[in-house]
Amino acid sequence: SEDQEEIQEAVRTCSRLFGALLERGELFVGQLPSEEMVMTGSRGAARKYKVWMRHRYHSCGNRLGELLGHPSFQVKELALSALMKFVQLEGAHPLEKSKWEGNYLFPRELFKLVVGGLLSPEEDQSLLLSQFREYLDYDDTRYHTMQAAVEAVARVTGQHPEVPPAFWNNTFTLLSAVSLPRQEPTVSSFYVKRTELWDTWKVAHLKEHRKAFQTMWLSFLKHKLPLSLYKKVLLITHDAILPQLAQPTLMIDFLTRACDLGGALSLLALNGLFILIHKHNLEYPDFYRKLYGLLDPSVFHVKYRARFFHLADLFLSSSHLPAYLVAAFAKRLARLALTAPPEALLMVLPFICNLLRRHPACRVLVHRPHGPELDADPYDPGEKDPAQSRALESSLWELQALQRHYHPEVSKAASVINQALSVPEVSIAPLLELTAYEIFERDLKKKGSEPVPLEFIPAQGLLGRPGELCAQHFTLS
Amino acid sequence: MGKAKKVGARRKTSGAPAGARGGPAKANSNPFEVKVNRQKFQILGRKTRHDVGLPGVSRARALRKRTQTLLKEYKERDKSNVFRDKRFGEYNSSMSPEEKMMKRFALEQQRHHEKKSIYNLNEDEELTHYGQSLADIEKHNDIVDSDSDAEDRGALSAELTAAHFGGGGGLLHEKTQQEDEEQGKAKSRKELIEELIAKSKQEKRERQAQREDALELTEKLDQDWKEIQTLLSHKTPKSENRDKKEKPKAERLRRMLGKDEDENVKKPKHISADDLNDGFVLDKDDRRLLSYKDGKMNVEEDGQEEQSKEASDPESNEEEGDSSGREDTEESDSPDSHSDLESNVESEEENEKPAKEQRQTPGRGPTSGKGRAGKAAGDELPYTFAAPESYEELRSLLLGRSMEEQLLVVERIQKCNHPSLAEGNKAKLEKLFGFLLEYVGDLATDDPPDLRVIDKLVVHLYNLCQMFPESASDAVKFVLRDAMHEMEEMIETKGRATLPGLDVLIYLKITRLLFPTSDFWHPVVTPALVCLSQLLTKCPVLSLQDVVKGLFVCCLFLEYVALSQRFIPELINFLLGILYIATPNKASQGSTLVHPFRALGKNSELLVVSDREDVATWQQSSLSLRWASGLRAPTSTEANHIRLSCLAVGLALLKHCVPMYGSLPSFHAIMGPLRALLTDHLADCSHPQELQELCQSTLTEMESQKQLCRPLTCEKSKPVPLKLFTPRLVSNSQPQVIHPPWPPNYRCEPQHPAKKVIFVKVVML
Q1: How far, in Å, are A163, A164, A168, A177 from residue A226 at the CA level?
Q2: What is the pLDDT of residue B211?
Q3: What gap in Å lies between CA B662 and CA A397, rounded to an integer?
Q4: Is B197 at the interface with chain A, CB within 8 A?
């Protein structure tokens, strides 16, 4: 039928009808024989009815699953709630025989249908997924969702040679919605009401959940994802994914792959790697080299500047880093500062000074009392390896140049190196998000002590005197 | 002898003034003083006139003449001061002496009442006792008291007590004995006492006289000192004139270096031991300041002086005009009225054009209809204008008028509402500045922009700004904030901004003209710099128009720092971008390119000119600001020419930067990418000859900047003194006595049972 109202009514009726049937146990329980066989068979009418009813229930479930892809959201929503109602009832009144006592039964086939419908390759299901989110609070649905998602991903990637981005987006939305409890819950909450709990059930253990969680993410991340999705995944990696994996080090494949993509993604991947190195004892010798490679002039102009420097500060916070490395970073940053706008300079200059404070061995960069006079800067900006860059032989002349920056605050910040550096570090956290507009407003509000100084050379015209630059290169006509 | 002779001669001359001429007129003349000119031959009929001479007399006369003329001149040789009697009515014969005295007294009183003595109550009322000032008496007594306290405790007081109270016989006896011995005869007691009193009185008088002498001497000393002081202070006015010129420059230099004010206050100014306190230091500083433009500034300085003189003149003119303006309106309505307008414009060259036009317009008559119409309207202009209360009012006043009329209107508004004329005029003119600024913005956004009017209005803006710095700076800040706000909004919504219209650029340029841009920190200029930086970093260059605007911003930026020579990373980036978009894309480049430019993409070859013919026909010319406002779509040839001009300007700016930043410690690191691009430009020979040469010269100049990399060192800091903590004592708390347990290594010594060791620790909180 085409009419929305009719579909909705039909869904409601089906939901009520089969709900009642499930409760009454009027559906065939056990391995379902084919319909023709039963009809032609010589069993009793009651059994025939039950089998037939079960078949109808089955096709109704399929149909509802299809309806999850209906263009109208109301229909989708209704179909979803009907399906979940079936899941709940079928879980309580299982349609298969329990093989032993305490056998855990869950309507997996039906649930797979639901998840398959949610992870549609054709259209964006984010709204429906947000509806589905409430079911993920239950332990059993969460567990089975994770399992079903793995299968769905495998199925779709097997079927389509070129997986549409909509599917990846849906999958990511679903996956990111799954969040495990931080510790073993004392009371498990089940969507399907259980009369008694068995310790043998996997659903009841957080460890199993973690395993499922890990397989789910790894099976998702092993595929080639669109770039935008990489970003989204990396954004939640460090606080939503890594801590909940059973074996976080397995993420290294994904992270190294992301690391090679460049730009913001590399940075985010480095963040994940850093956690692995820091907390999980991972060996990754190229880490600082990669970070060093990320420093290019555009770093001050991109939107993720604040995050970048927050992380860089974190990565370089260890006082056990070798001096050559820190010196290379300081020198590189100083070099880049020569192209930076004032808002970035106000942040990066204290950053460099902090590096020098943390590593007294690097203070030769600003204080080399009896050093020989050099013809050129020994630092090699083209060198990719910080160890080979000869930064320790150099000095931070860039900061000296920036002391002549036009903005007074930058000039002051750069002049810090003229004196011996004070011991406490300057917190750069409030400077990270600084924008030029804020600087502008601050400058506007600042009041001078003396009256506003005025130009004493009288104005002649818009372009000024004939000798001045504007008058040289521009005309009014 | 000679003296006597002279005296005699003088007496004689005073007795007979014409005596010298008369020769031997005096019968009683001393024969020794007469010199007879003997005649050898007697010639008949010849009158002898000089047969007798009086050398003494004539010499005395000559001397007197010298003292009256030559000596006077000699004495007044180096004096230009004139003694002027300023006493009131001294030479006014029509006043009676009483009147004069009254008037003088009144004046004196008045002077006392001015400012100084506002708070001195009862100062001028002098209380007297027996015609003596009480204040004097009091002072006098005080002194006596203190002195007698200090000195008179000795012998005299003993004497006095003896005399007054009759006691102390021994002393008296002693005295009398002494006197007996001296005079050898006895005196009665009464005599003795009288003598004693007289003596003491005399002593007292002597002491008084002494004291008065001392007082007089100190007073004299004071006076002398005052004279010396005035002499000292007289020395300064000499250098005042020079100061007047130097002061703003020195001030500007101080602000440029950005020394904090408190720092200045704290440290006394360094004075060299060789300093003669003749302002030579300033001179030296100044020379350094001038050298920044290869002597150009020197020429300008002379001009400035003249201009500043001129600038001050119109003001006085204005005031005069104001006072008389109301009456002789007829006079000022003739074409002459333009002349004072031109005096405001100051620059001779720029004056010439409009002046010529005006001169021609009446002559042309009917041939130039528009000119005549303008003229007619000029005649119809009212002479007084109320200051506009709102921007719309000003707009309606100015809109639809010719340039000359607009300027006239603005000037008349200023004149009619000069702050010296009425109370509220100051506020009105302050507002006028804001309105004019807005009007300028409107003119700049018009299509086509009326830049000539703006060009002239700038002068008025400058004058108004000089009058009201505070409100003017507020108005400029306001427009800048508006512009920035607009840009910020755009960045927030779209993630990037477009270069703003011509109005913002012109506001920034006006800021440059009104305020000293070399200051280390300035309430208006510093935000303007941030604004410029935003324009260069946040706005992608999407069209040829944007290139022109961006180059204008670069120009402005460089002008802002022309004097202070400060470093602008954004500018270097932008120029790099300009050079980049003028070369065909290559794969390897682009790693150093930063934000507003992209290494690859739609606009990465914006300035590339591929048409050979256009390259050949291009002629170097300066860019027009009109192109920035998007006057019309240029033809492809024109566009190509604009492209090449843009590139030329970019290269010229780069060349300007090279010597400016040559002294920066990491000059080569800054210029590295630019150098690579310039070599690319040179290698690619499609540019016209001029551009090639420009490239070549810039490149050589860049390479010729020698640089020594001296390792950095910190300044030695003073050793920080140990912090001394003083215990905080609370007065009312009971000292708490704690007996700590015996320390572990303490051993009781039985051989000295009397010596007890008690550890007492007083904890003071």
Answers
A1: 10, 10, 8, 19
A2: 92
A3: 14
A4: no
| Long-range pairs for B442-450: beta carbons < 8 A, 24 or more residues apart | B442/B395, B442/B503, B444/B501, B444/B502, B444/B503, B444/B505, B444/B506, B444/B629, B445/B501, B445/B502, B445/B503, B445/B629, B447/B629, B447/B630, B447/B631, B448/B626, B448/B629, B448/B631, B449/B502, B449/B625, B449/B626, B449/B629, B450/B403
Which amino acid is it at A86?
Answer: F
Residue A31 in this model has a pLDDT that exceeds 80? no
pLDDT band at A369 (very low <50, low <70, confident <90, very high): confident
- Is B288 in contact with B246 (CB distance < 8 Å)? no
DSSP secondary structure letter of residue A236: H
Residue B573 CA to residue B673 CA, distance in Å, equals 9
Interchain CB distance below 8 Å, B713 and A368:
yes
Q: Which candidate, A39, A18, A175, A30, places its Cα nearest to that of A89? A: A18
Q: Which residue has the tokens 């309507």?
A: A107
Q: Measured between alpha carbons, how far is residue A253 from residues A116, A163, A246, B575 in Å?
A: 27, 21, 16, 43
**Is A17:A85 a contact under the CB 8 Å cutoff?**
no
Q: Which two tokens stand for residue A167?
A: 């599917």
In this structure, how many other beta carbons lie within 10 angstroms of the beta carbon of residue A468? Answer: 18
Cα gap B455→A459, rounded to integer Å: 10
Measured between CA atoms, how close is A256 to chain B, in angstroms?
Answer: 23
Helix (H, G, I), strand (E, B) or coil at B763: strand
CA distances from A100 to A88, A97, A143, B139 (A): 21, 9, 22, 125
What pLDDT, in 10s, does the model give residues B259-288? Answer: 544 444 334 445 455 545 454 444 444 433
B595-632 per-residue burial string, b: 16 or more CB within 10 A, e: under 16:
bbbbeeeebbbbbbbeeeebbeebeeebbbbbbbbbee
CB B701 within 8 A of CB B695: no
Side-chain-side CA neighbours of residue A214 (13 Å): 17
In angstroms, rounded to a whole number, what is the distance separating the alpha carbons of residues B344 and A370? 61
Rounded to whole angstroms, the Cα distance separating A46 from A52 reads 10
Confirm if B537 and A374 have CB atoms less than 8 A apart.
Answer: no
Asked whether B311 and A421 are in contact (CB, 8 A), the reply is: no
Helix (H/G/I), strand (E/B), else coil: B737? strand
Q: Which of A473, A476, A477 is best to mutate for the B interface (most B CBs within 10 A)?
A: A473
The pair of structure tokens assigned to B732 is: 């009312």
Least CA distance to B599: which residue of chain A? Answer: A298
B470 contacts chain A (CB < 8 A): yes
Residues with Cβ within 8 Å of residue A19, at least 6 apart in sequence: A85, A86, A89
Nearest to A440 among B465, B527, B625 (CB): B527
pLDDT band at B310 (very low <50, low <70, confident <90, very high): very low
ipTM score of complex: 0.77
- Spacing of C-alpha B419 from chain mean position: 23
Residues 441-460, chain A, touching B (beta carbon < 8 A):
441, 443-444, 446-460
What tokens were used for B442? 């409107």
- Sequence-ordered list of residues with C-beta below 8 angstroms from that of B446, at least 6 positions apart, any chain: none
* CB-based contact A406 B537, cutoff 8 Å: no
pLDDT at B61 over 90: yes
Is pLDDT at A55 greater than 90 in this prediction?
no
Q: How far is A295 from chain B (nearest CA, A)?
A: 11
Residue A251, both tokens = 């993420």
Query: Computed from CA positions of residues B521, B524, B527, B533, in that sequence, does the dihedral angle turn out positive or negative?
Result: negative
Nearest residue to A114 via CA among A91, A141, A75:
A141
Put simply, whether B300 touches A (Cβ < 8 Å) is yes
Please say if the pLDDT value at position A35 is more than 70.
no
Tokens 């004279």: give the residue: B227
Helices marked H in B274-389: 280-290, 296-325, 329-333, 337-345, 348-364, 369-380
